[in-house]
Amino acid sequence: MAAHQIVKTTEICGGAARVANTRITVRTLENLRRLGASDADIIDAYPTLMGFDLSIAWDYVANHREEIETDIRENEEE
């Protein structure tokens, strides 16, 4: 069951914003969306997520655009 919140924990996923109780980062979800994946596609790929988890992830992206852009850019450089 997903926790319906976005968290950051230094020891998990390098401190990147992620869906609570998972290792699924907001960066990953946003990248999938940019590649054309629908919410249904993402839930199929990550069956532990629910639609509400994606809603909070999209809200997080909208409210933390610079953070997510930086996270995506830095991840691509690695």
Give me some keywords for this one:
single chain, 78 residues, mainly alpha, Arc Repressor Mutant, subunit A, two-stranded antiparallel sheet, 4 helices, 54% helix, 5% strand, globular
Summarize, please.
By secondary structure, the protein is mainly α. The chain contains four helices and two strands, in the order E-E-H-H-H-H. Helix 1 crosses helix 4.
Give the arrangement of secondary structure elements.
Elements: E1 6-7, E2 18-19, H1 26-34, H2 39-45, H3 51-63, H4 65-77
Antiparallel strand pairs: 1-2
Q: Biggest sheet, open or closed, and with what strands and sense?
A: 2 strands, antiparallel
Helix content: 40-55%
Percentage of β-strand residues: 5-15%
In the CATH scheme, the class would be Mainly Alpha
- Examine the coordinates and then state which fold CATH places here, giving the name of the CATH topology: Arc Repressor Mutant, subunit A
